[in-house]
Amino acid sequence: MISPRRKGLLLVYTGAGKGKTTAALGTALRALGHGWNVCMVQFIKGTWRYGEIKGAAAFGERFELHRMGAGFYKIQDDDLPEEVHREAAAAAMELLVGTLQGGKHDLVIADELNVALETGLVSPEDVKRVLAARPSNIHLIITGRGAPEFLIEQADLVTEMREVKHPYQQGIKAQPGIDF
Ligand code: ATP
Ligand code: MG
């Protein structure tokens, strides 16, 4: 039973540097150590074999991770119809709102929600619906570059990752265990 007295926080990890999803996963690990239940809903992300999926499975039912995206949207090798991305984002939205209202999870993570908003897959009203659905004793983390001003205003914590150096600049490709 989640204490009704707990002060739930709204945390935002944004910016163009690497580490937003990683920071959310680190917080999840910490929360799991307290015996909490965690749920991460991933927007956009699709077919890559992300290490966090198997990693989360090691915690059994206490760490739910739902990869709800259809894959990269309008970049890389995206050749899916627009409608497929929209339906995936709408399904992710419903799952997220349902999870926040479900009462099972202490910490809920909306991974890449900012990117879904920035690219128009979800609307500002959708994001506001998520914020309104959060009970006051549940922690919510929203990640993704391009956090909108209204979200920054409402958040209790906002960290902007700033790129100083990235292996990509040397032509080094994404590495398993580090990038996915
Ligand atoms: P991570 O999931 O590694 O914490 P992130 O959530 O901060 O990264 P995203 O915008 O979600 O960043 O990008 C995900 C992927 O893009 C990761 O593989 C990450 O290494 C890579 N990436 C992130 N920032 C940069 C950057 N500044 N230049 C090149 N690649 C990047
Ligand atoms: Mg990310």
Would you kindly provide a written description of the structure presented here, covering whatever features stand out?
- The chain has 180 residues and is of the alpha/beta class.
- The chain has a single domain, classed as Rossmann fold (3-Layer(aba) Sandwich), CATH 3.40.50.300.
- 36% of the residues lie in helices and 16% in strands.
- It has helices at residues 20-33, 51-57, 82-102, 113-118, 124-133, 149-154; strands at 10-14, 38-42, 63-67, 107-111, 139-143, 157-160.
- Strands 3-2-4-5-1-6 form a six-stranded parallel beta sheet, sandwiched between helices.
- The structure holds adenosine-5'-triphosphate and magnesium ion.
Number of separate domains: 1
* Rg, Cα atoms, Å: 16 Å
- Fill in the CATH topology: Rossmann fold
CATH superfamily: P-loop containing nucleotide triphosphate hydrolases
- How much helical structure, as a percent, in the residues? 25-40%
Our count of helices gives 6
Level-1 CATH class name: Alpha Beta
What is the chain-wise order of helices and strands?
EHEHEHEHHEHE
- Please state the structural category: alpha/beta
Assign an overall shape: globular
Query: Which percent range describes the beta-strand content?
Result: 15-25%
Specify the CATH architecture.
Answer: 3-Layer(aba) Sandwich
Largest sheet: 6 strands, parallel
* Spans of at least 5 consecutive residues with low confidence: none
Fold blueprint:
Layout: E1 10-14, H1 20-33, E2 38-42, H2 51-57, E3 63-67, H3 82-102, E4 107-111, H4 113-118, H5 124-133, E5 139-143, H6 149-154, E6 157-160
Parallel strand pairs: 1-5, 1-6, 2-3, 2-4, 4-5
Helix pairs in contact: 3-5
Bound molecules: adenosine-5'-triphosphate (ATP) and magnesium ion (MG).
